[in-house]
Here is the input.
Amino acid sequence: MNLDFNNNPFIVIWELTRACQLKCLHCRAEAQYHRHPLELTFEEGKKLIDDIYEMENPMLVFTGGDPLMRPDVYDIAEYAVKKGVRVSMTPSATPNVTKETIQKAKEVGLARWAFSLDGPTAEIHDHFRGTEGSFQLTMNAIRYLHELKIPIQINTVVSNYNVDVLEEMAVLIEELECVLWSIFFLVPIGRGKEKDMISPAQHERVFRWLYQLSKKVSFDIKTTAGQHYRRVVIQEKMKDHKKEKQVIQYQDVLMNGMTGRVNGLGRAPKGVNDGNGFVFISHIGDVYPSGLLPIKTGNIRTNSLAEIYRNSPVFQNLRNPDKYKGKCGVCELGDLVLEHMQ
Here is the structure.
């Protein structure tokens, strides 16, 4: 597969709504209970899906807030699936998630569901999610997914609240028979605070632990906002091959996979980064390089997604490492870590 991220993204994240019943401490969206009156309409959503499909049909993820707070979420999903778009969803674990709603999603053709799990116990998870009972609702949802034979992805935000229980988390992820553990390193945006981030030394320790973990678990692992994990993987794989008296080039490591097996929706054969293979659309149609980089580049109500993605100076600069300044501009590993996997 020869992907040109200058023209088309590998993955599109669409924030269907900011409405959500949870009160997560880190929430990028600063979600509210009620829906915004200027959310993209169903007809606008259909046009957006048409535009996405024409961009060589990237993966589409419905996020929020909580996508299930939109009554027309299944109509939107059905339109996308019938168009031929691969769709997954990251709902919040609330009473809205029932076996019946998951069955409906399966009938529509959603490829995968992803739920957040931020601690191995209800005490840790519920505190982080700001809602008592969220942990048990997540466990219930995972059970429903297993019963309906739908692949499960677990998202975890690594922060000072849970960095010391990640080993217990890994055991739980294995027991839950998930296909992917998607690990997000907390970014201080929205409700997220800088004091909740782990330290540089803790990042390094977690990265090296994740690499060793990836060699012995049954699920795949990927990171978001963990640029240097890519560097750690290459260093560790080259050390492993040196012990085996084999010669390996770092380019081979990059192109042959980061960690574990690939399962489910697929993974880009090269690095995906904010604005470079990755694009985020807000509930009101604003377009950003990612949800964690709040630089507005346009709105799909006035310009097509393709026009914004391909021609916005912000996107173009993000796809050109020679434009980076400061520490990123002089870093000898810049080309490597700036192509981290989203």
The chain has a mean pLDDT of 87. The chain has one domain: 11-337. The two ends are 18 Å apart (CA to CA).
